[in-house]
Amino acid sequence: xPELPEVExxxxxxxxxxxxxxxxxxxxxxxSVLKTFDPPVTALGGLTVTAVSRHGKFLDIxxxxxxxxxxxxxxxxxxxxxxxxxRPPKPGKGPLAMRVHLSDGSGFDLTEAGxxxxxxxxxxRDASEVPGIARLGVDPLSPEFTPDRLRALLTDAGRSxxxxxxxxxxxxxxxxxxxSDEVLHAARLSPFHPASTLADDDVSRLHEVIVGELxxxxxxxxxxxxxxxxxxxxxxMRVHGRTGxxxxxxxxxxxxxxxxxxxFQYCPTCQTGGKVLADRRLSRLxx
Length: 287
Fold this sequence. Notes:
Layout: H1 4-17, E1 23-28, E2 49-55, E3 58-63, E4 66-71, E5 76-81, E6 96-102, E7 107-112, E8 120-124, H2 131-134, H3 147-156, H4 162-167, H5 177-186, H6 200-221, H7 229-236, E9 255-258, E10 263-266, H8 268-271
Antiparallel strand pairs: 1-6, 2-3, 3-4, 4-8, 5-7, 6-7, 9-10
Helix pairs in contact: 1-6, 5-6
InterPro entries: FPG_cat, FPG_N, H2TH_FPG, Ribosomal_uS13-like_H2TH, Znf_DNA_glyclase/AP_lyase
Organism: Phytoactinopolyspora mesophila
Protein name: Fpg/Nei family DNA glycosylase
């Protein structure tokens, strides 16, 4: 799933390559991707791309005051082409959901792999009209995200597991499954640690790690073409997606906890005092 660094990098790529160009046509290959109907998607035709911004994991493409807002979800992506195919796509064929044509012949496709279709596109007059944006929490790379702010958020979360709190977009906007794994590994915290029970030193370290991990990921992604962002993210992960491999810090084996529809990875030595966490589909934490 694209998270804050990748979405921010996609925004930077579009600011360089799309801003100033006119939207000539929008082809919808999967009608289910559209979550709004007023303004219609056809209203984008003839408008100029004037700005591109990010809200959490939402990409906001401003076209003369009409916003094309995209949430790429778990398996969505934006594929840029300097010479986009002028042929209208066949509805329901392959991963293509939407194609945006620009005035110089370039453009981009919004695609989604797999059968679980969660990619969402909104055409709105104000980005705050998108429900997911309206309820976003603090951006972790903003000045408002301070150690004191993080402490207050963790206190409000009570005994909720820290992994879930970091992923909750209404608490902190932009962190998903992958970077929460990386953050918790770097902060040497168990994914199941109750949020409100972290000591002050742990909160300070967690804040430093969140900002540092996301800033480093963004730095790696900056300047990359859209097609290269996925590989950059994948190769930079220390524990996420590394089940069975050696932890780069302590050489212990990276373990996985699976749920019904997701999983996360961690290092027992670095994060749980050597304890192995049980598969949550089957049992509770091994004692």
